[in-house]
Write a structure and sequence with these properties.
- The chain is an alpha/beta fold and 220 residues long.
- The protein is built from 11 helices and 5 strands, in the order βαβαβαβαβααααααα.
- It has helices at residues 14-25, 39-49, 65-73, 93-101, 113-124, 132-141, 143-146, 161-171, 176-183, 187-201, 206-215; strands spanning 5-10, 30-36, 53-57, 82-87, 105-108.
- The chain has a 5-stranded parallel beta sheet with strand order 2-1-3-4-5, with helices on both faces.
- Helix 1 links the parallel strand 1 and strand 2 (30-36).
- It is globular and about 50 Å long.
- The protein starts with a strand and ends in a 5-residue tail after the last helix.
């Protein structure tokens, strides 16, 4: 039998945390490895328990979810942990900062249990969880603030013209199927392009690719 996905739940509201734990523990392929109510405790517990996924709230005492995510999954972390951020508002700037800090995706707290479970499984498999429409809204809202943070022209990128085209479509929030339809290629070919782009740019997933594209001014 395949070992269950071990999840650490971090939320300072006990009622929400208890609900998350109950939902997760009821699944045969998931297991709650631990729970806590602040970001520092999440960092400490993750170091000891090595969960597969951390479900992380954003606004918490002692250490907020953004800093905790950066310590668990940010650049330079030797053994990063996959983090799924939960938040109250889908356009909250804290969510964007959490994605920059290394989170693999996010969900709204009012999402149905099925979405939470799907999100945990998706992140555990190494994929990013970021709805295309929310991508357009979230990153689009902060595009003006993102771009100046990093210079560089498209010609400096180690990408072929086709890979650059795919990267721009990813940043526009298109899914693999939508990219395939737009470019008249198969979804498997799109997956290959995405893998190459991530490898060449040293990015972990599509979330980082979106942020990268906006910071380099590749999309408007």
């Amino acid at each position: 039998m395949t070992a269950p996905i071990r999840v650490l739940v971090c939320d300072d509201q006990m009622l929400i945390r208890t609900g998350l734990v109950t939902i997760i523990d009821a699944q045969p392929d998931l297991e709650v490895a631990g729970e806590c109510g602040d970001g520092q405790a999440a960092v400490d517990l993750a170091g000891r328990l090595r969960p597969d996924v951390v479900v992380m709230d954003v606004r918490m005492p002692v250490l907020d979810g953004i800093e905790a995510t950066r310590l668990l999954a940010g650049a330079g972390v030797p053994h990063p942990v996959k983090v799924l951020v939960v938040t109250t508002f889908n356009l909250d700037e804290y969510v964007y900062e959490a994605l920059r800090a290394g989170a693999s995706g996010f969900l709204l707290k009012d999402a149905p249990p099925s979405q939470l479970l799907h999100g945990i499984r998706t992140v555990a498999m190494g994929a990013a969880l970021l709805d295309p429409e929310v991508t357009r809204q979230l990153v689009g809202r902060y595009a003006a603030r993102i771009r100046p943070a990093e210079g560089g022209a498209p010609r400096d990128l180690p990408l072929t013209p086709r890979e650059l085209e795919v990267l721009r479509l990813i940043a526009d929030g298109l899914s693999n199927s939508e990219i395939a339809a737009a470019l008249l290629i198969s979804q498997e070919t799109v997956k290959t392009f995405v893998s190459r782009i991530l490898a060449k740019l040293g990015l972990r997933d599509r979330v980082q690719a979106v942020v990268y594209a906006y910071r380099r001014g590749l999309v408007t």
